[in-house]
């Protein structure tokens, strides 16, 4: 199994981070088998495109909430890492508490 679970939707509360705020979070290693996806469908054009990260962040966005790591953005990058037989990837991880303001970590 590549991911811990294939989900469909974001169960965590809205965090409201902008692309600029995501970019301030330093990337760190995350195991693919600890991630729960928030999308159940992948567009093969995105997966196979050579310039798929040209207009976006180079690192996937992961939300840590209630002990789980949710892959919010970057499913195609995570799957590409798995196809290259890597078990970890570098991602920006945002910790969202049950209540209160998210913390960058």
TrEMBL record:
Pfam families: VapB (PF23719). It comes from the Bacteria. InterPro entries: VapB-like_prob. This is Antitoxin VapB. It comes from Sinosporangium siamense.
């Amino acid at each position: 199994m590549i991911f811990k679970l294939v989900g469909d939707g974001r169960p965590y509360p809205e965090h409201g981070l902008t692309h600029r705020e995501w970019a301030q979070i330093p990337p760190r290693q995350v195991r693919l088998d600890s991630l729960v996806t928030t999308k159940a469908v992948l567009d093969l054009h995105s997966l196979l495109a050579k310039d798929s990260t040209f207009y976006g962040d180079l690192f996937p966005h992961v939300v840590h909430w209630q002990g789980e790591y949710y892959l919010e953005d970057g499913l195609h990058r995570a799957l590409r890492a798995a196809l290259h037989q890597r078990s970890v990837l570098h991602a920006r991880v945002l910790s969202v508490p049950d209540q209160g303001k998210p913390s960058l970590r």
